[in-house]
Design a protein that fits this description.
This protein is α/β, with parallel strands linked by helices. Helices cover about 35% and strands about 25% of the residues. It has eleven helices and 14 strands. A hairpin with a 2-residue loop joins β1 and β2. α3 crosses α4 and α8 crosses α11.
């Protein structure tokens, strides 16, 4: 569906995307992870035609792209970061007008709009003013709008930002349903659980570069030991030789801002030694390592820098 080789995007002297290469296969859900400013949204914008390609090669549906043309856009569905709905039109008319941009008659657009509202659980809001909707309902409406043209490729830039847990799970279920129908999806997200739940493959980016790529399970297995210990003590209360002792028994330590994480293949063994090393066990939490640990290890300092 998409092939990217050496993709570059500059904004003045700043290189926002620096030689990105990846492939998106039909029916997959590919996720982008990374701190703010990592280049995720810029890459997405080059794919859906809001930004030109400066260098490298971008191919969509087998067609080389410099700036995505209308013929390609007609086959895409786009959920931008911003809820850019028309405040002068009620809910259903937002979808009708958008459908008209894809060549649907008013009757067709209305029928498809009603179907999409029902799909996203918004059928009771069809005559509501946009400004009367909560942030979560607006987000669901933007997703409904992106589906009005039956896209082959759906691009979602932080699709569940602002949603409560119940609404987020609703959206996840709808996206899984679209995947089962063969709709290819690319999404950016800051929610690690979302990435793990939805994505077949993940790309972790920082400073315009791809740091790692693989399935959620592969990334955890390859980049962090099996167990993590979260240290809840302030850093100044942590024994100064703790990290060297952890490393001496084969463990790893990671400091992110004011937080300390310890990693080991045998987490219980490491945890049992902490008291002898001057760190109270009750101030530590032992758990399995997750995708969030991979993110913190590879890109966790990007936000501060």
């Amino acid at each position: 569906m998409i092939e990217v080789k050496g993709l570059v995007k500059n904004f003045g002297s700043k290189r926002a995307v620096d030689g990105v290469s990846l492939t998106v296969r039909k029916g997959d859900i590919l996720g982008f992870l990374g701190p703010n400013g990592a280049g995720k949204s810029t890459t997405m914008k080059m794919i859906y035609g809001l930004s030109t390609v400066d260098e490298g090669r971008l191919s969509i549906f087998g067609e080389p792209i410099h700036l995505t043309p209308p013929s390609i856009k007609a086959r895409l569905g786009v959920v931008p970061q911003e809820d850019n709905l028309d405040p002068d039109l009620p809910v259903l008319e937002n979808l009708e007008v958008y459908g008209g941009l894809f060549g649907l008659s008013r009757r067709e657009a209305k029928a498809k709009g009603l179907k999409m509202l029902q799909f996203m659980g918004l059928e009771h809001k069809e005559t509501s003013d946009i400004e009367s909707l909560s942030g979560g309902l607006k987000r669901r409406l933007v997703i409904a709008r992106a589906l009005i043209n039956d896209p082959e490729l759906l691009l979602l830039d932080e699709p569940t930002t602002g949603l409560d847990p119940q609404a987020r799970h609703l959206v996840w279920q709808k996206l899984r349903g679209l995947k089962s129908e063969g709709v290819t999806q690319i999404l950016t997200t800051h929610y690690m659980e979302e990435a793990a739940q939805l994505c077949d493959r993940l790309v972790i980016m920082d400073q315009g570069l791809i740091l790692a790529e693989g399935s959620p399970e592969e990334l955890v297995r390859l980049h962090v030991p099996a167990y993590a210990i979260e240290v809840r003590e302030p850093l100044e209360a942590v024994p100064p030789d703790l990290i060297s002792k952890v490393q001496a028994v084969g463990g790893e330590a990671l400091q992110v801002s004011d937080s300390l994480f310890l990693y080991a293949s045998d987490g219980k063994c490491l945890w049992q030694q902490l008291g002898d090393w001057g760190l109270p066990q009750h101030s530590c939490i032992l758990r399995r390592s997750t995708l969030e640990d991979v993110f913190l290890k590879l890109a966790g300092k990007g936000e501060d820098e």
